[in-house]
Amino acid sequence: MSIKDQVRIIQRVEKNVTELQHRYASNHLATLELHKLDTSLQKLTTYLNDLDQLKPNYSTNEIDTHIDAINLHLDILKVELEKKDYQKLNNGIKVLRTVLRFHPVKYSFFTYMINWLFELLYFV
Predict the structure, then answer these.
(1) Is 104:48 a contact under the CB 8 Å cutoff?
(2) CA torsion through residues 68, 87, 22, 14, sign
(3) What is the reported pTM?
(4) Per-residue pLDDT for 104 more than 50?
(5) Are residues 55 and 63 in contact, defined by beta-carbon separation less than 8 angstroms?
(6) CA atoms of 86 and 26, how far apart (whole Å)
(7) What is the pLDDT averaged over residues 44-49?
C-alpha cells in the first residue's frame, strides 16, 4: 500500500509535467526536457512497481540514481520555465524526494499519513 501511495504521488507530478508540456509546446528546449523528465518519472514508477512485485528479496539501492536523473532535469528546467511553473513542479518533486526517503514497503500506516500530509501541503 505504501508503494502504491508513492506511485500515486509520482502520477500527480506526471500530470503537472503533461500540463507544462502543452503550455510550453512552442519552446522546443523546455518541451524536450519535460519529455525527458516524464520518461524518468515513468522509469521510477516502473521500478517501484517492480519492487512491489518482488516479495522476499528486494532492494531500494537504485532509487538514488532515479532521483539524481530527475534532479538533473529539474535543474535544466529552472532556466527554461517561468518561475511560477517551475515552483509548482519543484514542489511536486520535493514531495517525491521526501516521500522516497522512507524505506518503501508494502504497507505502513506511518508513511501513509506522511504521504497524505505532504500531498495536502504541496498539491492542494
Answers:
(1) yes
(2) positive
(3) 0.80
(4) yes
(5) no
(6) 17
(7) 87
The secondary element (H helix, E strand) that includes residue 47 is helix 28-53
Name the percent of the chain in helix, strand, coil, to the closest 5: 80, 0, 20
What gap in Å lies between CA 4 and CA 114, rounded to an integer?
A: 14
Amino acid at 94: K
Count of CB atoms within 10 A of residue 112's CB? Answer: 14
* pLDDT, mean over the chain: 82
* Domain regions of the chain by residue span: 2-123
- 64 close to 47: Cβ distance less than 8 angstroms: no
| Phi/psi at 31 (5° precision) | -65, -40
Q: Tell me the C-alpha to C-alpha distance, in Å, between residue 32 and each of 27, 35, 39, 89, 95.
A: 9, 5, 11, 16, 23
The three-state secondary structure class of 100 is helix
Per-residue cell: 51: 519492487
